[in-house]
Design a protein that fits this description.
- This protein is of the alpha+beta class and 151 residues long.
- The chain has two domains: 64 residues, no CATH class; 80 residues, no CATH class.
- The protein is built from four helices and nine strands.
- Strands 4, 5, 6, 7, 8 and 9 form a six-stranded mixed β-sheet that branches. The protein has a three-stranded antiparallel β-sheet with strand order 1-2-3.
- The longest helix is centred in the middle third of the chain and has 12 residues.
Amino acid sequence: MKANIEAEKTDHDDRYEFQVTVREGRGETHHRVTLQKADYERLTGGKASPEAPVNEINWANALREMVTKPVRLSGHARVQLTRRGVSEDEVIEVIRTSSWQPAELGRLECRKNFLYGREWNGKFYETKQVRPIFVEEAEEIVVVTVYSYYF
């Protein structure tokens, strides 16, 4: 089945930012892709529109690279995992599968609800929500802290 890829471009002084939606079958993922204008010029010579992908394979490769960028937890984030009842695998899943949003101090955040169905701190909860706060660096995604909510 062929994926449907939609990209909305926002033009900034030194970069383009795209909100990309990938739909395939009944699934849908959302991604934020940043393209430095200098890289755009170097790669295309200015001959292609930045909002029109040359082909879907190029977009798929770019998205795959972004989604598979290594995730590293800071020391503080690792401490928060235990305190907040979250696993490292859950944090990585949230980052890989959820839509990213701007957070305070130039950071990013995303969130995902997990079926929980058990006790936490003496009270029964059906759902656990995991919300990592992170920065996207050139070679990796660094998780600064992790929040969890039970309901």
